[in-house]
Amino acid sequence: MTSRRTKRRVHVLLTVGKGGRLARAIDWLIVGLIVLNVVAVVLATVDSVFERYRSVFYAFEIVSIGVFTLEYGLRIWSATAVPEYSSPITGRLRFGTRPHLLIDLFAIVPFYVGTVVFAFDLRVLRALRLFRFLRLLKLVRYSEAMQRFGRVAHRKRDDLLLAITGSSVLLVVASSLMYFVERDAQPETFSSIPATLWWGVVTLTTVAYGNTYPVTPAGKVLGGLVAVLGVGLFALPASILASGFIEDDADPRRCPHCGESLGTDLPGHER
Amino acid sequence: MTSRRTKRRVHVLLTVGKGGRLARAIDWLIVGLIVLNVVAVVLATVDSVFERYRSVFYAFEIVSIGVFTLEYGLRIWSATAVPEYSSPITGRLRFGTRPHLLIDLFAIVPFYVGTVVFAFDLRVLRALRLFRFLRLLKLVRYSEAMQRFGRVAHRKRDDLLLAITGSSVLLVVASSLMYFVERDAQPETFSSIPATLWWGVVTLTTVAYGNTYPVTPAGKVLGGLVAVLGVGLFALPASILASGFIEDDADPRRCPHCGESLGTDLPGHER
Amino acid sequence: MTSRRTKRRVHVLLTVGKGGRLARAIDWLIVGLIVLNVVAVVLATVDSVFERYRSVFYAFEIVSIGVFTLEYGLRIWSATAVPEYSSPITGRLRFGTRPHLLIDLFAIVPFYVGTVVFAFDLRVLRALRLFRFLRLLKLVRYSEAMQRFGRVAHRKRDDLLLAITGSSVLLVVASSLMYFVERDAQPETFSSIPATLWWGVVTLTTVAYGNTYPVTPAGKVLGGLVAVLGVGLFALPASILASGFIEDDADPRRCPHCGESLGTDLPGHER
Amino acid sequence: MTSRRTKRRVHVLLTVGKGGRLARAIDWLIVGLIVLNVVAVVLATVDSVFERYRSVFYAFEIVSIGVFTLEYGLRIWSATAVPEYSSPITGRLRFGTRPHLLIDLFAIVPFYVGTVVFAFDLRVLRALRLFRFLRLLKLVRYSEAMQRFGRVAHRKRDDLLLAITGSSVLLVVASSLMYFVERDAQPETFSSIPATLWWGVVTLTTVAYGNTYPVTPAGKVLGGLVAVLGVGLFALPASILASGFIEDDADPRRCPHCGESLGTDLPGHER
């Protein structure tokens, strides 16, 4: 009976937005630990820093994995406190395959795989460091902002898809034409259409590092036309997302459960 | 009689958005073949890939042309199933001059011209590869998104025209001034106004590869002013298109047939 | 009496948007001549073209000046046909100081000044070619689009002024900080704050030719912060202008005479 | 008694937006002096100018400090004219800790600290020149535009925070991936993740000076994806701010005191 109450209390403490002061403290602790994990991965690539604080980095990794493993274990263990997942095995399995729980699992599994399977093989461990960024995904649970971003992207998916399709077609066609125009003058840089795609991407996004550009008059005319016409097309997704956020602010008639718009055809509504 | 029913069935199968599961499968087959054609043109320019899979590329081109020719032939043949085009010759001629059918024709004609007229002249065939991108236009029939893009551009044509005219005037005036300012310091790069237009385009689109830029103090002041004032003007078309999409989403009062707006002056309508 | 009717007819013919088919032909003739004048200035800077068609360029300039002078003379002469300007001298003076007529005057005066005063001094004539771009201003009379652009800019002048002030302050402060950070590492490029303004402008407009950039760690951190914060600020004017065009489309309550908005506080108006 | 009226009059004269013609003249004098101070700091870094007008720069600095000190002193002295701050000591203390007054203090303190404490140590004085930019903050009192900018940023703080968080996460993840992909090919440029952040910032803001870019095929694919996906995200804050200004224009129902929106749910209001 006491165990049951403990389990329920643990479950509530780990559920975002529920519980009292302690629950919020736990939330902030985990969010802080995730951010520190990213900072550690970033700093550990600076050789001088890593050499000096090597043991600190290792210790911090062990502690992080410990906390995340404990958190994951407690979540799975306390899942049966919810009537929906009350069955000890199948209930926990269904609970453990929910997106948030899978993210929690992916955040710790690479460490155990790397340590157990490859027995501290340094090169493998180095590559596995990349997987620590998966821990960032744990933030989704705590961030209403990220959920909102996903909602806006979902809402504008048709427009975004259209802009992305149009951009892709323009990118391939522009790069192909540029390849046929410039390949004789610069056979090294414009050696094939896939190689010319690099020119296309850096030009259409206006990044343009300045290492690939047309030199023939025909190539310059084509490049100029592509820049003038294409830059606008590549800027469309940002404008579309922005308008999505604005509508998201303006429109109070959204389903309180899923965040989807309830439509604009309600009687007595003008927009 | 049976022939007539076959013809009608073929016509329905080839009409986008009609017919059952088989018709949709045919649609997807042709869309897939178009995309693969573009991928083939792109990959064939990588020498190592082309050398290795030369025969695959040739075989794929033959198959594609076969399918597109069959598709075109069946469309023309079955056109008489529609009362509007029932006359065997003049009806088919009128059907064959519709934009979609002309695109279908342009997608296959270059191959036959190249093979028959130039009898496998390799250099001509190489240049003809560019025309394979015309096959992308066939996608317009299947893509509601592309039609929508055209509709939005049509709707905002006045604003777009204004932005493009303003940009062009700014481009010519800015490049001319820069030519007069920089020609003495950099006679090679800024050799004439047309040559300076290249500077103007890459600066105003903010692409700026970094191979042409002013070096004199006067040129830098002019270049700075042009950048500050002009970049906004060149970004206008994207903003205008984006607003067109947003209005397109927001406004449900469009003719269901042509997609044109039904106007904003309906009684009882506030906007 | 006949002279009076001729005068009135000439005045109507030269007034944009009035008169019949002949009046529109005259409009198009002058617009075409203006565009050709700009094309001529641009092409004349290509040495090989200018050498070959030298006499054509001179003849075209004489013809253009003749037509523009005739047009200007007829406008001034026929001004008295309007009751408002009926006085032969003071009326014509008042008519001649209207903006459009001053533009017409500026389009021809440099030629006469150059020829008469400097007696075909080649270097002066060359510099005077720049003034031919003033003829572009004559287009304003014919272009409703340019008038609309001015109207939108006027309407959004507060926002634009704010964005421009903010951008200027950011530009000066960012460049000053960068000067103090980088001057020791790159004394040539970052020799003074005015010299560093060039870095500021090309960075904040994202033009970034790649010839001036920070190299010290502190300079890179500062440059990164400036880029992230500042690029958005410099993009504001474009967004503001775009929104001005959208409102200009959406809002039918404008004064039919001057195009100014009639305000948004009319009773019974929702927006 | 007369002193009291003088004090009240001084207080009114120094309060922006109050007083008659003289008060406005004082406002413009101080605004002009602030702008000239910034111009002086900028020009003084040009060696040739500074050498020639050394004494003018010093004199101008002394005069500026004198005026700003007098202004500050008069403000503090006359504060007791307001009933709220009528207590000679505690009232003036409370008045002196208001943001505007603290800014006034920061504008003059560095000069006195530098002169008194460091006794004309030239290197310290040089570094202190930077603090003169703090005088720009005095403009906030006079600029309704800057207050409006702050209001819009405050209103859109949630959206801005979301865009900035998203951008930061993307920046760190993209730079980390690029580091792992490119470090072997370019160990100098991509020496650590912090060093690679410079690549991330200049690419995602599309500044791209052209001194750091990926060279391996994998790096180019990654860089292309980051550019296409990320540029839009980094452009979001500008779009959000712009929409904030537009709403700020459109919405007349704001509290006249604080500028905050009064909400959009008033009866009889359509939006």
Structural features, described:
Chains A, B, C, D: Pfam families: Ion_trans. The structure is a homotetramer of 271-residue chains. The first copy, chain A, contains ten helices and no strands. With 271 residues, chain A is mainly alpha-helical. Chain A has two domains: 141 residues, Up-down Bundle (Four Helix Bundle (Hemerythrin (Met), subunit A)), CATH 1.20.120; 98 residues, Orthogonal Bundle (Helix Hairpins), CATH 1.10.287. The first copy, chain A, is elongated and about 80 Å long. At the B-C interface, helix 10, helix 11 and helix 12 of B face helix 2, helix 8, helix 10 and helix 11 of C.
Features:
mainly alpha, 0% strand, 271 residues, Helix Hairpins, 10 helices, disordered C terminus, homotetramer, Four Helix Bundle (Hemerythrin (Met), subunit A), 69% helix, 2 domains
